[in-house]
Design brief:
215 residues, 11% strand, Lysozyme-like, 2 domains, alpha/beta, 10 helices
């Protein structure tokens, strides 16, 4: 995966990333503005604020500003907090206005996070949100659109990198969908097979017809 590197100067390590770090998870953020990834990183490394993050992702590229073996100030949980001291911070761009640019940025971020998970041998449980560490409603637009939805995007990309989910995994509905899946089976709308496979238009037409017949 192509990653543009524009690292903060070592002369600013004392401000931006003062501690060595062995990362243990990924922390997802939304930028709350409409700057590109390149501009996000350029601004972060140029100022003297104790605010920093490892990567910014927009609809076209991934830009890195801090090495992964240094901490960053992003999670709002203090100088010794796990978010700030053990998390790789990833900012998803264009979240202020949203729209198609943000949607594409989120897709690229999901691919990048999956790439990082595979690289490090981590599972989807290693993907955290800023909110988990400080209570701040961030990543705000991703949360508005559905956090589980985003995790599913990452999981889908991770499965592709791993060669796809096994047959056994495909035949077990996700925990978040289990209730709805059981209801759909009970109502006769679905036959109870292949819960994680794609739905064809033909199959959708059958489900809609079954719903109409129940009225």
């Amino acid at each position: 995966m192509n990653i543009v590197q524009n690292f903060v100067s070592p002369f600013k390590y004392n401000i931006k990333c003062p501690y060595p770090m062995t990362p243990e998870f990924i922390v997802v953020h939304n930028t709350a503005n409409d700057a590109s990834a390149k501009n996000e990183i350029a601004y972060m490394i140029s100022n003297n604020n104790q605010v920093s993050f490892h990567y910014a992702v927009d609809d076209k590229e991934i830009v890195q500003g801090i090495p992964e073996n240094r901490n960053a100030w992003h999670a709002g949980d203090g100088g010794s907090g796990p978010g700030n001291r053990r998390g790789i911070a990833i900012e998803i761009c264009y979240s202020l206005s949203g729209g198609q640019r943000f949607i594409e940025a989120e897709k690229l971020a999901a691919k990048f996070i999956a790439y990082k998970l595979k690289e490090k041998g981590w599972g989807i449980d290693r993907v955290k949100k800023h909110q988990d560490f400080s209570g701040k409603y961030c990543p705000h637009r991703t949360l508005d659109m559905g956090w589980q939805r985003f995790l599913n995007m990452v999981k889908s990309e991770l499965d592709k990198l791993k060669g796809g989910a096994t047959v056994a995994e495909k035949n077990v509905p996700s925990s978040w969908a289990k209730g709805a899946w059981e209801w759909a089976k009970k109502e006769g709308l679905l036959d109870g097979t292949r819960p994680k496979d794609n739905l064809t238009r033909e199959e959708l037409a059958v489900v809609l017809k079954r719903l109409a017949d129940k009225k």
